[in-house]
């Protein structure tokens, strides 16, 4: 009779078999003793990456120490605070899209996005005035992105580090944030800025990148819908301006550090448009600024910024032509290069307004009165004719462009410094090889422009 190995039976267990219980331990008095519980060292509020790797997380925000050292994606699970639970608007972001009427579809899109969504797609969206709604194919793969609640919790810190002036921070904390839930475009713009800064802090994290691209696309589409309306409600002007400002900041930001990758060294028209979009999109700010200035009810932006004593009134842009005194601020060398004469006007010389703006900016900088807001006003207020010349790589337009970038030489803000330094190096390299000796001389020593304004 064949024998059965008893080891085989150890592999099986009857469901009805009684469970083996640990034998109780007794004290010398005969009473059962309570077994001490092992020390619990697990972090319950740690990031998802540390939990997945079963390691203790130091719970650092926005990036924990372990993920920062390992250059891994650091995303915290969505656990709204009591304040966020009470604020339905921050939990439920309304996308105002017919495709998102179903709540399940809303939540799915809020957490997931196509993996092939790229920068060029966003740039095309930013560069058009017509609304566009991307169609989701059922067979397209998707990947997770940073949850909106995590981006919301990072907003306060993001604003403090993105706005260098006190009025700007105060305005966003007291006016924009408390009212953003009622304006979908503004809400998505804030989430996009939060995700963009997180992606800047941790470039290897694709979750942040996808969230930044997704919310930028939605904010831009909704903003375009507002701007294409026959009439814009006065009460919405301040929020529309805030949304446009956020989109400008997002498009301005870059992590590029190689000057040779600049649009200046591209030949394909579509590539140039996408790469230069960060500057071209600023035109919308100038358009909205004029509307706000003409608003009879006033604007919270003008009210708050006027209270900033560091903003010099010499830099205020008016609809009328610059006065003749502005011409006296322009160095003679640049006036000759750009063919500026006493008869020049913004209508007959495309370099006139940009050169006057730069002259004012360097003048107030030499007096110690300049600030980031005054320097950034150049982009929104230059005429379209100048933008076209810049797009065509006209050397005079590039020279003024380089001088504007030089204003930010000491700027360290995360969304400004990298862009201006990289573009400045690219323009300087190109103009140093110009056939015009005067342009080469200014490119070789651009500080002559600063010294000329300081002596006035």
Question: How would you characterize this protein structure?
Answer:
The protein is built from 26 helices and 2 strands. The chain has 456 residues and is mainly α. Among the domains are: 114-127 and 143-249, no CATH class; 254-300 and 326-455, no CATH class. Helix 6 runs parallel beside helix 11, helix 12 (237-252) packs antiparallel against helix 15 (283-293) and helix 23 runs antiparallel to helix 24. The longest helix is centred in the middle third of the chain and has 22 residues, at 206-227. The protein is elongated. 34% of the residues are buried. Mean pLDDT is 75; it is low at 6-19, 80-142 and 307-324. This is Zn(2)-C6 fungal-type domain-containing protein. Residues 13-45 are annotated as: Disordered. Residues 46-76 form the Zn(2)-C6 fungal-type domain.
Tell me the strand order in the biggest sheet: 1-2
**Strand-pairing-aware structural class:** mainly alpha
Low-confidence stretches: 6-19, 80-142, 307-324
- Percentage of residues in DSSP E strands: under 5%
Structure summary, number of beta strands:
2
**Tell me about the biggest sheet?**
2 strands, antiparallel
Calculate the mean pLDDT score and round it: 75
Intertermini distance: 116 Å
**CA radius of gyration:** 29 Å
What is the count of DSSP helices, taking H or I runs of 4+ residues? 26
Shape from CA axes?
A: elongated
Pfam families: Fungal_trans_2 (PF11951), Zn_clus (PF00172)
Protein name: Zn(2)-C6 fungal-type domain-containing protein
Region (Disordered): 13-45
Keywords: DNA-binding, Nucleus, Transcription, Transcription regulation
């Amino acid at each position: 009779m064949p024998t059965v190995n008893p080891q085989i039976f150890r592999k099986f267990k009857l469901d009805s078999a009684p469970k083996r219980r640990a034998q109780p331990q007794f004290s010398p008095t005969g009473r059962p003793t309570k077994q001490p519980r092992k020390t619990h060292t697990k972090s319950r509020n740690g990031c998802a990456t540390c939990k997945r790797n079963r390691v203790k997380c130091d719970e650092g925000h926005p990036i924990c120490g372990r993920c920062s050292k390992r250059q891994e994606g650091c995303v915290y699970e969505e656990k709204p605070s009591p304040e966020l639970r009470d604020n339905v608007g921050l939990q439920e972001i309304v996308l105002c899209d017919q495709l998102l009427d179903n709540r399940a579809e809303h939540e799915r899109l809020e957490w997931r996005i196509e993996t092939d969504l790229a920068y060029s797609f966003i740039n095309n969206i930013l560069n058009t005035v017509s609304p566009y709604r991307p169609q989701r194919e059922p067979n397209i793969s998707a990947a997770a992105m940073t949850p909106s609640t995590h981006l919301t919790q990072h907003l306060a810190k993001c604003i403090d580090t993105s706005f260098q002036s006190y009025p700007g921070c105060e305005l966003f904390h007291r006016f924009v944030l408390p009212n953003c839930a009622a304006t979908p475009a503004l809400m998505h713009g804030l989430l996009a800025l939060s995700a963009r800064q997180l992606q800047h802090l941790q470039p290897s994290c694709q979750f942040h990148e996808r969230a930044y691209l997704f919310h930028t696309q939605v904010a831009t589409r909704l903003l375009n819908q507002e701007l294409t309306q026959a009439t814009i409600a006065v009460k919405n002007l301040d929020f529309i301006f805030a949304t446009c400002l956020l989109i400008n900041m997002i498009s301005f930001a870059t992590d590029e550090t190689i000057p040779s990758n600049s649009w200046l060294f591209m030949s394909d028209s579509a590539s140039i448009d996408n790469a230069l979009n960060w500057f071209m999109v600023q035109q919308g700010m100038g358009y909205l600024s004029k509307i706000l200035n003409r608003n009879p009810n006033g604007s919270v932006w003008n009210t708050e910024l006027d209270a900033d004593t560091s903003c010099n009134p010499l830099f205020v842009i008016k609809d009328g032509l610059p006065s003749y005194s502005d011409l006296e601020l322009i160095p003679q060398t640049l006036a000759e290069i750009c063919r500026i004469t006493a008869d020049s006007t913004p209508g007959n010389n495309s370099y006139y307004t940009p050169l006057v703006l730069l002259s004012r900016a360097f003048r107030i900088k030499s007096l110690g009165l300049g600030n980031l807001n005054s320097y950034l006003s150049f982009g929104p207020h230059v005429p379209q004719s100048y933008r076209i010349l810049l797009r065509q790589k006209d050397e005079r337009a590039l020279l003024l462009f380089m001088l504007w970038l030089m204003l930010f030489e000491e700027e360290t803000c995360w969304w400004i410094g990298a862009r201006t330094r990289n573009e400045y190096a690219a323009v300087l390299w190109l103009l140093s090889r110009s056939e015009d000796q005067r342009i080469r001389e200014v490119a070789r020593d651009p500080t002559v422009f600063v010294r000329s304004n300081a002596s006035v």
